[in-house]
Task: structure prediction
Amino acid sequence: MTASAIREILKVTQQPDVISFAGGLPAPELFPLDDVKAATARVLDTAGPAALQYSTTEGHLPLREWIAAQGSIPASNVQIVTGSQQGLDLLGKILISEGDTVLVEAPTYLGALQSFQPYLPNYVQLPTDDGGIDVDALEDILKTTRAKLLYAVPNFQNPTGRTLNLARRRRLVELTAQYGVLVIEDDPYGALRFTGEALPSLYALGLELAGDVDRNHVIYSSSFSKTLVPGLRDAWVQAARPVIQKLIQAKQGADLHTPTLNQMVITELLPILPRQIETVKAAYGERARHMMTRIAADFPAGVHHTVPEGGMFLWVTLPAGLDTQAMLPRAVERRVAYVPGRPFYALGGGENTMRLSYCTATPQQIETGIRALGDTVRDALA
Result:
């Protein structure tokens, strides 16, 4: 096991005068605080002691039924987990044996690598570009590699902000079905699209291909952390029943069940979810556009960045030869922080890349922080 690079960086950047583009934290000023207060009171008034009692491992049935209805699947195919990070850990526990080949994007979400690593997989990195995973390269890999599992973040990927396009989604689902590879689709940001057209999930495409919810080879994971509030730690996995049955057993060994009160509060908040999503999308879209404008104005020539259609991140690539890990202390001296790109690569690479989050920064902080980062890059080039 290894420490999270992001969590370690956040320890360094807790000073109030440091502008942090490092953490993938939702904007706290957007939390529906009054609604959460009212929902909690209603739950305690109506459910009483049951809201504070042990509950079923599978999760609060009304919440599971609501989630299931969104995908037109049975509630028995939904498992509530304590944050999507627990879902990844439990999926790794039930699916990965030592030496299994796991396909991951290059770069990929480092929290998934941290979750899977204790189960000792062999990683194979999938090449990516602005359209997401290179499915031609994926096909070549599948022809020569006996892979167990593919992990992907198709919507506004963490860390790059890229979106896997529709043609590649279909091809990925077809190829993995053809070669017998399970897919974990991690989708915490999918509802936060602020430009462009919504795309079907890999799970939906897998269901369309299989024709049976319990023969779908795609496992879907999502969360209420990015749309409502992260502190309640409510997320879910939807999958074929054999996967869900093993997840139930794994979760019983981990924490018995996700906190009852939290699940009931989330359920009570579901009527305000559409309004809350619109609020978050509008704010993040404005902040992302402002950050990209400032990067264009304040970064030196030869710097490239992704253009996210939603989510919380964008990805910056500096000229070859620069090392963003080595640059970080100099950036912090200028009172600005980011996440170096290297930890997002399972097998190395990305030394000249960085992840920036625009979610929690004000327009003034974005202007000041990006200007300071631009000066840091210029110093490194000198």
